[in-house]
Design goal:
The complex is a heteropentamer of chains A (251), B (294), C (248), D (348) and E (291). Chain C is an alpha/beta fold. Chain C contains nine helices and ten strands. Chain D has 348 residues and is α/β, with parallel strands linked by helices. A seven-stranded mixed β-sheet of chain D has the order 7-6-8-9-10-15-16, sandwiched between helices. A five-stranded parallel β-sheet of chain D has the order 2-1-3-4-5, with helices on both faces. Classes of the chains: A alpha/beta (251), B mainly alpha (294), C alpha/beta (248), D alpha/beta (348), E mainly alpha (291). The structure holds adenosine-5'-triphosphate (ATP) (2 copies), leucine and magnesium ion (MG) (2 copies). Chain B: It is a multi-pass membrane protein.
Chain lengths: 251, 294, 248, 348, 291
């Protein structure tokens, strides 16, 4: 279980998060929505250890996650995607995917030199998993292309694929559907539900309200760095404050 | 003590005016142009030759600055422009090749031996420090040139466009910014500044085809200390470096603490300067690369 | 320049990146004050189409005309000066510059109108007014998108190329942006080439639809003719039922 | 001249033709050229014309090694005349020794050069000899206290140590030692300490371009002391009026001899850049000795070289080598700068 | 001529090891190091210090390697606080500090004059040892290059934040790379000392680092043969211009300058004609394995 308690962050005078608390549970998908600039990505970065909060703590299964140490957080089984994808641009799509795989013996020099067989077996397994995932994301035909040459939507998909390769306990997704075509969004929905069904915790930032309504078990709404509403997707849609600040007339 | 400050100021001026050119080009083309230092040398030699031809010194410097600016544009067109998209380290190495080529040509034309400007200036005693008219001219020229450049970069539309071009070339083009014209202007300005700085440096010291090797380290150290891309930063970097170097050996540490007098042996001058630079670099506030954050 | 010529015409355009060819003999004409919606799977070449219209790709063949004038050989900045406005999908703001300086660059071609234009876009996106001094790179994803749209609007273009303007935006902000596009089109009679993955919103706004499949305009049709079966097919493999080869 | 029918002898020259010390290096090579021309005009070394192969060392160890191996292994030269910093020559010397070649040093003065007897011979006197002469002489000039201003290299330090010892042995007092890094744009900061210490005189050594900057800084700071220098004639006078009568020192005594005069005349006939600098003479003597040794029946080698030097009256005066091939007992002149030129005012 | 070629090959082999070590840092990991001459110098000063103080030869070599590796870790310490451009200058600065200290502290290893060390007298033996060292270094690099470790190093090169998000501590990987590559450069330095038979600070200037950089970039960083080809190219270009110069028959001082001009021109032309360097980074193809 992920629990965020009273987290506050400010940047050069801007209060980006102002005492946010929320919980996300294994097997469930938590949606995080809110107007642009309300602090959603900032909150995700706090959980992921990229930003150390001024106040507050983040606990995963009751143990605090290291603040400001993204690699240590990731090592605890937390994977994340970026709103603007970070990729190893000159490496191929397949290499990016393989880099996502956790626990690779071939990354230790000693294993490489003295037990190369072990490294090779693990690598073969990772390659299988990577191509499996690429197939599902519709990127398999691009496996040997540089990641930097992918289209905007494809980069989003790759970013998500890399996060999945890590076999995470907690997965943090920052607008995975933005720029992705509707058919693949439908795939993503299936995919996320399957992840949750396997007992993982999912936190999803998304502006695509159909997708949110479709996959989220619970939704938290941020505005100006504070939680203004929480509940089921249906409840949220009826909330007047949310209507005003976030959904607008049409939503 | 006052003398130490005077020396530091003069040296900082010479370094800074060359350093801003490096920062300016770095900010737009994103590589450290080693040939820039050689532009300074060529500018100094051009001023020298024109001065020898009988031109009044200020005019000689102006003509030399213009010529060097054009040279910088020519090098950009012939060498750097075709290499667009290459990794910055490769461009840096190419610029080193350009520097080598230009240096050998200067040496072939003017000879490898040192030359000096024949300028005689008066000395004034300010407090207990000696200040020459040349010192004052050097510092004043630098301050003027820097202020003008700083204002041009931050206050004018063209300056902002240059920074925009540096930031995102394709996007800049789609805003109607013509990169070729603007970069040509940028190269011209940085070449001209290099020539000016090189001439000031040579006026205070001497001319030598390989004087770039002596200027290189302090200039790049100043630019790096100042954050690589800003005019103000380069000036600040030059001041820090110059002060560290001059104070380290110019100050009587013995007299400061006891009655005796003890100077740091001056052969440690460079060591101290470099050490100060490393220290400042390590202690300066961490630079967040925000691109990684979202 | 003929009065009857379409505002933007692509004629058998082949273009790509380096040796890579993405657009394959693509022909397309944008009609006066229409909104032409470009749909297609990820990687089908939509962004490449817009970049090619703007002059940012390597052109390997074909011809482009702006209101009848041949612009095939024009560099991007000249096209911008001729009135093409472009909102890119990625890399859409000057990340190292302040929001204020970004806006200044929006009006690069019309320095005299800078103040008025800035006031107008800040009116549309009040969120940006609060962040004028911030580095654009520090903005949130949605704020960046707003800034990028604002930048383009400030240039008062004669023709708009919009690459997924709604992505990263909150629903309320999308309303704002789409309303603004519609208004500009109607008031200033500006044609728009619009790429959207938000198909429903796109269809609601557009007049015609062009479907991209592997670098070709697989079909062009009026908005009313699009069925949901069509959409599904085109995002899966581009085999749109009625379409066949493109008809400009 | 008699017809040169025999095969030419190739002699290598390594010098810093680019980088630092270009001026002195060029002068040295010109001296070698003058000597080669003289030898060839006189029919060569035992009929063999001398052919020079000049290589650049760029003042870099690796390049000096490349140049040396090329000369030894490709051009098969039996001897190399070298102008380089001590560190460059010390890197080349072991190779020359291993290959049984001769290395004639015209510029460096590190005592370590004496570690290659039979291979490395110096035309230049060692620093301790000249330094000792300088220190002892300054002490006789009613100078009670001195400061040293020398470059931070083998030459500067070696000279300073020897002359400080001699000066102190004669009862003088050394107030401070300023060891500067070469090539600095300005030495005002370095020299500033002198204002506080006020020595009776300054002892210096160095090279033209740096010395010019040093003198300029001293003049700017208003220093009034006299400058006593080793080899004053290689220093560059910065301001004639200010320097008039203020620069004195000990120099190689041979440079005023008859051979030197002949060489100087030949130099001025060939090059139009004024008086030859001392390195022209060092280079000249180096090649002359090689040619003389090569003309001997035994051919060019350590034995013939050591024989050739006996009785040779060079442009730098008579040359005496110790057992390690290093020059001792050089003739020493006292030089003073007056009215725009250096004049010999005595001998030691 | 044979001797000359043997010497040329020996030097190419030694400097290739240095280029390989730089490639591990820059080509693979993206660490921009302008002070790679420091570990070479430290490696060489091990034997020099040993010679000066009468220690046996193996002790000197071990000292050199230990100094190089240890210095690497010290220099790496601030890397976490600095972006690449700044680290580049810190390494350059530290290398200069070391060189200046050696110049000014004659008690350590002879000061500016340097120290004589035992010289491998047989040129063929020297070449064999140098080639053996090169072989070992190349093998190690190959192993790292074509492995998950090499891949993760490249990810760090492209985007440290990404590597961290994937659960890798970039600093740990960087430390490993610096340790390995500085020890490698140290070994090259120790060998260089015993081949030349003489160690002085002037052999380890910033200019030397730039020559290695030139070789690396020219050859093509990120590839394995790149550094070797680049080093051979640079060394042979330097040597061959000597022959061209002699053949031209121009006055010696002009020739010396033109030689460098040709060198600079060649450098520029290579890049204008082959943008990715002589040996571009290998295109990786990942094959889906069938069980
Ligand atoms: N590094 C930073 N420096 C300064 N301000 C920042 C920084 N990062 C974020 N901000 C500001 O903090 C606020 C919250 O940003 P955040 O990215 O969390 O928003 P968001 O909710 O993810 O918005 P969006 O939906 O547009 O992505 C914004 O106003 C943004 O400009
Ligand atoms: N800079 C580039 N270099 C090489 N190939 C590229 C580059 N940009 C895009 N591509 C390739 O061109 C094809 C079309 O890309 P484009 O960006 O036009 O797609 P798109 O239709 O806009 O997709 P999306 O909906 O994901 O944005 C893709 O296969 C992509 O891999
Ligand atoms: C003639 C001398 C002043 C030369 C000096 N000994 C040197 O090392 O170069
Ligand atoms: Mg966000
Ligand atoms: Mg796109």
């Amino acid at each position: 279980m992920l629990s965020i308690r009273d987290v506050a962050v400010s940047f050069a005078g801007v209060r980006a998060l102002d005492g946010v608390s929320l919980e996300a549970h294994p097997g469930r998908i938590l949606g995080l929505i809110g107007p642009n600039g309300s602090g959603k990505s900032t909150l995700l970065n706090v959980v992921a250890g990229v930003i150390a909060p001024e106040a507050g703590t983040v606990l995963l299964d009751g143990r605090p996650l290291p603040a400001g140490a993204p690699h240590a957080v990731a090592a605890q089984g937390v994977a994340r995607t970026f709103q603007i994808p970070n990729l190893a641009r000159r490496l191929t799509v397949a290499q990016n995917m393989l880099a996502g795989a956790r626990r690779q013996p071939g990354e230790a020099l000693a294993t490489l030199l003295f037990r190369p067989g072990r490294a090779q077996r693990a690598e073969a397994a990772a390659v299988r998993a990577a191509f499996d995932m690429l197939d599902r994301l519709g990127l398999a035909h691009l496996a040997d292309h540089p990641a930097g040459s992918l289209s905007g939507g494809q980069q989003k998909l790759l970013s998500m694929g890399m996060a999945m390769m890590a076999d995470p306990r907690l997965i943090l997704l920052d607008e995975p559907a933005a720029g992705v075509n509707p058919v693949l969004v439908a795939h993503q929905v299936v995919f996320l539900k399957a992840m949750a069904a396997e007992g993982r915790t999912v936190m999803l930032i998304e502006h695509n309200m159909e997708m949110v309504a479709d996959v989220c078990d619970e939704v938290v709404v941020l505005d100006a760095g504070a939680v203004i509403a929480r509940g089921s997707p249906a409840e949220i849609r009826r909330d007047a404050r949310v209507m005003r600040s976030y959904l607008g007339e049409i939503g | 003590m006052l003398q130490v400050l005077v020396n530091a100021l003069v040296y900082a001026s010479e370094i800074a005016i060359i350093a801003v050119g490096v920062a300016l080009t770095y900010s737009v083309v994103r590589f450290a142009n080693f040939a820039h230092i050689q532009y300074a040398v060529i500018g100094a030699y051009a001023s020298f030759a024109l001065d020898r031809c009988g031109l009044p010194l200020p005019l000689a410097v102006a003509v030399s600055a213009a010529l060097t600016g054009l040279l910088a544009i020519a090098v950009e067109r012939l060498v750097f422009a075709p290499l667009q998209g290459l990794r910055p380290e490769a461009k840096m190495i190419v610029s080193w090749g350009v520097a080598l080529l230009l240096r050998s040509l200067v040496a072939a034309v003017f000879g490898g031996a040192a030359q000096v400007f024949e300028v005689e200036t008066d000395s004034h005693l300010v407090g207990d420090a000696v200040v020459t008219g040349l010192d004052i001219a050097v510092v004043a020229t630098t301050i003027l040139a820097m202020t003008a450049l700083h204002l041009a970069m931050t206050r004018t539309r063209i300056g902002t466009a240059l920074r925009a071009l540096a930031d995102n070339r394709d996007l800049a083009r789609t805003r109607g910014i013509a990169p070729e014209r603007l970069t040509a202007l940028m190269w011209f300005v940085s070449g001209a500044f290099a020539a000016l700085g090189g001439t000031l440096f040579a006026l205070e010291t001497r001319l030598q085809p390989d004087m770039d090797l002596q200027i290189l380290l302090p200039v790049f150290a100043a630019v790096t200390l100042g954050g690589l891309t800003s005019v103000g930063g380069a000036v600040l970097g030059a001041c820090i470096l110059s002060l560290a170097q001059n104070i380290a050996i110019g100050v009587d540490f013995g007299a400061l603490f006891t009655s005796g007098s003890w100077f740091l042996p001056s052969q440690f001058r460079d060591t101290i300067a470099v050490a100060a630079m490393v220290l400042v670099l390590c202690l300066r506030p961490r630079h967040h690369r925000s691109s990684g954050l979202r | 320049m003929t009065a009857s010529a379409p505002p933007l015409q692509l004629d058998a355009v082949t273009a790509g990146y380096g040796p890579l060819v993405i657009l394959d003999r693509l022909s397309l004409a944008l009609q006066p004050d229409e909104i032409l919606l470009v749909l297609g799977a990820n990687g089908s070449g939509k962004s490449t189409l817009l970049k090619t219209a703007m002059g940012l790709t390597r052109l390997a063949g074909g011809r482009l005309a702006l209101a009848g004038e041949d612009i095939t050989a024009w560099p991007a900045h000249r096209r911008a000066a001729a009135g093409i406005g472009y909102v890119p999908q990625t890399g859409n703001v000057f990340a190292g510059l302040s929001v204020r300086d970004n806006l200044r660059m929006g009006a690069f071609l019309r320095p005299a109108a800078q103040a008025a234009a800035q006031a107008a876009v800040l009116d549309l996106f009040p969120r940006l007014a609060e962040r004028l001094a911030a580095r654009a790179g520090a903005l949130s994803g949605g704020e960046r998108r707003m800034l990028s749209i604002a930048l383009t609007m400030m240039a008062e273009p004669r023709l708009l190329l919009l690459d997924e303007p709604s992505s990263d935006l909150a629903p309320a902000a999308i309303d704002l942006v789409f309303a603004a596009i519609d208004r500009i089109r109607r008031e200033r009679r500006i044609p728009v080439l619009l790429v959207e993955q938000n198909v429903a919103r796109g269809l609601a706004l557009a007049d015609r639809v062009v479907v991209m499949v592997r670098g070709r305009a697989a079909a062009t049709m009026p908005v009313g003719a699009v069925t949901s079966g069509d959409l599904h097919a085109l995002f899966l493999d581009g085999s749109v039922g009625a379409g066949g080869p493109s008809q400009p | 001249a008699p017809a040169q029918t025999k095969e030419p002898i190739a002699i290598g020259v390594i010098a810093n033709l680019t980088g630092t010390d270009v001026k002195s290096s060029t002068a040295m090579v010109r001296g070698v050229e003058l000597a080669a021309e003289a030898v060839n005009a006189a029919g060569g070394a035992d009929g063999h014309p001398i052919k020079l192969i000049v290589e650049d060392s760029q003042y870099k160890t690796q390049e000096a090694l490349n140049a040396a191996t090329k000369l030894f292994d490709v051009d098969k030269v039996p001897a190399v005349i070298m102008f380089g910093g001590s560190s460059l020559e010390l890197a080349v010397a072991p190779i020359a020794k291993a290959k049984g070649k001769l290395l004639i040093n015209t510029s460096s003065s590190s005592p370590k050069l004496g570690e290659f007897p039979g291979t490395l011979y110096s035309i230049l006197p060692l620093d301790d000899i000249v330094g000792k002469a300088l220190g002892a002489w300054v002490a006789t000039q009613s100078v009670k206290s001195v400061a040293f201003v020398v470059p931070n290299n083998t030459f500067g330090i070696g000279l300073m140590d020897a002359s400080a010892a001699a000066f102190e042995a004669a009862g003088g007092k050394v107030l401070t030692k300023i060891v500067y890094s070469e090539g600095q744009p300005d030495y005002r900061t370095d020299l500033q300490q002198l204002l506080a210490r006020q020595p009776d005189a300054i002892i210096t050594a160095g090279y033209g371009d740096d010395s010019r900057t040093v003198f300029k800084a001293a003049r700017g700071l208003g220093l009034k002391q006299s400058w006593y220098a080793a080899y004053p004639s290689i220093l560059t006078v910065e301001n004639e009026a200010w320097m008039n009568g203020r620069l004195l020192g000990v120099d190689d005594g041979g440079l005023t001899g008859a051979t030197a005069a002949k060489v100087a005349a030949a130099y001025k006939a060939k090059h139009d850049d004024g008086e030859p600098t001392p390195h022209v003479f060092y280079g000249y003597d180096a090649l002359m000795l090689i040619a003389k040794a090569a003309a001997m029946p035994a051919g060019l080698g350590p034995t013939s070289l050591e024989a050739a030097v006996k009785g040779y009256d060079g442009a730098t005066g008579p040359i005496v080598w110790n057992a390690n091939g290093q020059r001792i007992d050089p003739p020493i002149d006292i030089i003073a700068y007056k009215d725009g030129k250096f004049a010999t005012i005595g001998h030691q | 001529m044979v001797d000359f070629l043997v010497f040329a090959v020996t030097m190419i082999a030694v400097w290739s090891v240095v280029a390989l070590s730089l490639n591990l840092q820059f080509g693979l990991t993206g660490l921009v190091n302008f002070g790679q001459i420091l570990p070479v110098g430290l490696g060489a000063f091990g034997p020099a210090i040993a010679a000066q103080h009468g220690l046996p030869i193996p002790a000197g070599i071990a000292l050199g390697l230990a100094l190089a590796a240890a210095a690497g870790l010290v220099v790496l310490a601030p890397v976490r606080r600095l972006t690449q451009d700044y680290w580049a200058l810190v390494t350059l600065g530290v290398a200069e500090i070391f060189r200046l200290m050696m110049v000014n502290l004659p008690a350590v290893a002879g000061g500016a004059d340097g120290t004589t060390v035992a010289r491998i007298a047989d040129p063929f033996a020297a070449m064999a040892i140098a080639l053996a060292l090169l072989g070992a270094a190349a093998l190690l690099c190959l192993r790292i290059d074509r492995s998950p470790l090499g891949r993760m190093l490249r990810v760090i090169r492209e985007d440290e934040m990404l590597a961290a998000a994937l659960g890798r501590n970039p600093f740990r990987f960087q430390a490993l790379v610096v340790l390995v590559s500085w020890a490698m450069a140290g070994a090259a330095g120790a060998l260089y000392a015993h081949i030349v038979g003489y160690v002085a600070p002037s052999s380890f200037t910033v200019a030397e680092t730039f020559i290695v950089w030139t070789a690396l970039i020219l050859g093509g960083p990120g590839s394995l043969v790149g550094p070797l080809v680049g080093t051979a190219f640079v060394q042979l270009l330097g040597v061959s211009t000597r022959f061209v110069a002699a053949w031209s028959g121009l006055p010696f001082d002009l020739v010396a300058n033109l030689r460098l001009a040709v060198f600079g021109l060649a450098l520029i032309l290579v890049f204008l004609l082959r943008r990715e360097g002589l040996c571009p980074e290998r295109k990786v193809v990942t094959r889906a394995v069938d069980p």
